[in-house]
Amino acid sequence: MTIKRVLVRERVRRIPAQFSWLDHRLVRDRHIERCDAPGCALYLFLVTVADAQGLSYYCDASLGRSLSTDPVRLSKARGDLIRTGLIAYQRPLYQVLALDP
Question: 20-77, pLDDT tens digit by residue?
């Protein structure tokens, strides 16, 4: 069994004031514009399945099936989300990160 641990403690997400796990700053601060469609799909999936600290673990095969994507596209989407600072990843653990204040 995988033991979940916070990967980036200083970026644990919190429920924003507008009471939504999808922070409005994704659009307002243009984070969403730095993601392509597969990246947005992966981000939405991770936000949906993550626990209160933003943690989840899904293997690539399960993510690929759920998102109808191939391993190369999934790897690129994950890399893009890491580079844009939206997630952290240490196989098999994902952490959806809080947006920078």
Answer: 667 788 888 898 899 999 999 999 999 989 988 889 999 999 999 999 999 999 999 9
Q: What is the 3-state secondary structure (H, E, C) of 69-82?
A: CCHHHHHHHHHHHH
- φ/ψ of 67, rounded to 5, equals -100, 5
State the pTM of this model. Answer: 0.80
Alpha-carbon distance values, 89 to 16, 84, 85 (Å): 23, 13, 11
What is the rounded distance in angstroms from the CA atom of residue 80 to the CA atom of residue 48? 19
Which residues, in sequence order, are CB contacts of 61 under 8 Å at separation 6+? none
CA–CA separation, 94 and 98 (whole Å): 13
Report residue 37 as tokens: 């469609």
Question: Crossing angle of helices 71-83/37-49, nearest 10°?
Answer: 80
